[in-house]
Every structure is written in structure tokens, then in C-alpha cells.
Design a protein that fits this description.
With about 270 residues, this protein is mainly beta. The chain has one domain: Neuraminidase (6 Propeller), CATH 2.120.10. Helices cover about 5% and strands about 55% of the residues. It contains two helices and 24 strands. The protein has a five-stranded mixed sheet, with no helix packed on it. The longest helix has 6 residues.
Length: about 270
């Protein structure tokens, strides 16, 4: 059962941030899909489906620092990252066709990422309790995910809605991190507004104690009551924040451009 409906974005105002810095990412991150902070000067990044089970460390200008191989893991469709105090969580949660039955969160020790070039992963295998068909009817295409965040020993997964007709509310699911198998039930809904998938489908999320939840869509950023319109045509895939710096990563896309890291300031 969905416990609550959140409308805290419905009164948001549009804000344009002019001071956006842009950095090139290496070709190895041409399909960047997840971003998380390691410390004040280092970001963690991953590629999505069909790529190696590898985690990359980059600096805040997008330059590659280190490549770490993740063992006991497979990159079917890695789409998102979340970091706790002890673990990095890698979301093999991409489900474009809403037909996967092997959705997985990989857990790796953060301190081992710093020290080693190869790190073993633990697994949490999960499914959606409210999904009965694989795939469901197009009107129930609600089982894709490209965004999650960590808060108080719990992961929160945010759905990427692909319904026809499109729905402008999104499901949030809770996943405990001390289990090996789990069935997810909707925890709450968030209404973000918008009318089009290619503008308002959720592609990234982050949580900070200061700002609470940050949500990224293809065209907008939601933070502290602001709905920020992001300029330019790029495929934005992930977001995270370090202090007053918000980092957004965009993957390479034909006719649009090479992979890039964007930086904007938000107090």
C-alpha cells in the first residue's frame, strides 16, 4: 500500500542558473549512468548496460583517477549509485522493457574502493511486489528505475515512469540494506508535474542532510522547493552534491555530444 502522497514539488518555481561549468569526461565514461561523492574532491561513476562491472573514480573536473573492477557482479543495466557511511550501493535496476526478474543492488565497501583495484561485491536481489506480468501492459510500465538514494540504513528507489499515457507522479520504494532478497512495495508517491517523458522522467537522485532530496529529470532539477530548468539538449543521467556544488553527468549521444560533467552552485 502507498502510505503517503507528497506534493512538495507542485509549488516549485522555475529558476535558471547561469553559472554552470562544463567539463569533458573520458571516453571510458561515454555511457555514464551513476554518480556519487567519495569525498570533497572525488566522485564515483559507473556506466550502464553492456559495459564492464567497473567503478571509476574521477575528480571534480571529470578527470579519471582510478578504475576498480567489481567481482561477483555483472553489469546488466547499472543505472544509479548511492553511498552510505560504510558501503557504496550500485543499482543494477535498469528495466526499460519492464520484464527483468533479476534486479540487483550490489554493495561494496567504500574503504576498499580507496585501497584496492579489485573489490568483491555483496548482492541484494529484489522484485516489485505489485508487478504480476513481465512485461505488463503499457499503461502499467512503472517498474523501471534509474534513481536511488540512501538515508538512515535504508535505500530508496524512485521509479522511472513509462506509462502510456504518461503519469507525472512517481513511486518511491524502500529497501533495507541488510537483506539478500526482498520484495518491494510502494512506500509513497511524489508528484513532480510535467507532461512529457523526455523532459520529466526521473534519471537521478541524491540525498543530503542539508538539502534533503534532490531529483534529476532529463530537463529539470528539483532541490529545496526549486524546480530548476536546465538549459541545452543533453542526456542527463545522474546527480550528486558536495557542499555547495551540484554535479550532473550526461552520457554521450549521437548528434548531441560527448559525455560531460556539469557543475552548478547551490547553497
Amino acid at each position: 500500500m502507498i502510505r503517503s502522497i507528497c506534493f512538495f514539488f507542485i509549488l516549485s518555481v522555475f529558476t535558471n542558473y547561469a553559472q554552470i561549468q562544463k567539463y569533458k569526461l573520458p571516453k571510458t565514461l561515454k555511457e555514464i549512468s551513476g554518480l556519487a561523492p567519495l569525498n570533497d574532491s572525488t566522485l564515483i561513476a559507473i556506466n550502464d548496460s553492456g559495459n564492464q562491472a567497473v567503478v571509476y573514480l574521477i575528480n571534480t573536473k571529470g578527470e579519471l583517477i582510478k578504475t576498480i573492477i567489481i567481482t561477483d557482479a555483472k553489469n546488466i543495466d547499472w543505472e544509479t549509485l548511492a553511498q552510505g557511511s560504510e558501503y557504496l550501493f550500485i543499482g543494477d535496476v535498469g528495466n526499460n522493457r519492464n520484464q527483468r526478474t533479476n534486479l540487483t543492488i550490489y554493495k561494496v565497501k567504500i574503504d576498499r574502493l580507496i585501497k584496492n583495484d579489485t573489490v568483491k561485491a555483496e548482492s541484494i536481489v529484489f522484485s516489485y511486489k505489485n508487478q504480476q506480468e513481465f512485461p505488463p501492459d503499457k499503461k502499467n510500465f512503472i517498474f523501471d528505475c534509474e534513481a536511488m538514494y540512501f538515508k538512515k540504513d535504508t535505500l530508496y528507489l524512485i521509479s522511472k515512469i513509462k506509462c502510456r499515457p504518461w503519469d507525472d507522479s512517481i513511486n518511491v520504494y524502500q529497501l533495507p540494506v541488510n537483506v539478500s532478497h526482498y520484495k518491494l512495495s510502494p512506500y509513497k508517491k511524489i508528484y513532480i508535474g510535467g507532461k512529457k517523458y523526455f523532459k520529466d522522467a526521473v534519471t537521478g537522485a541524491s540525498f543530503t542532510q542539508k538539502d534533503s532530496l534532490i531529483i534529476l529529470t532529463y530537463k529539470h532539477l528539483f532541490i529545496k522547493g526549486d524546480k530548476i530548468r536546465l538549459k541545452g539538449i543533453v542526456q542527463r543521467e545522474s546527480v550528486c552534491k558536495i557542499k555547495d556544488s551540484i554535479f550532473i553527468a550526461a552520457e554521450a549521444f549521437p548528434f548531441i555530444g560527448k559525455p560531460k560533467l556539469y557543475l552548478l552552485k547551490h547553497d
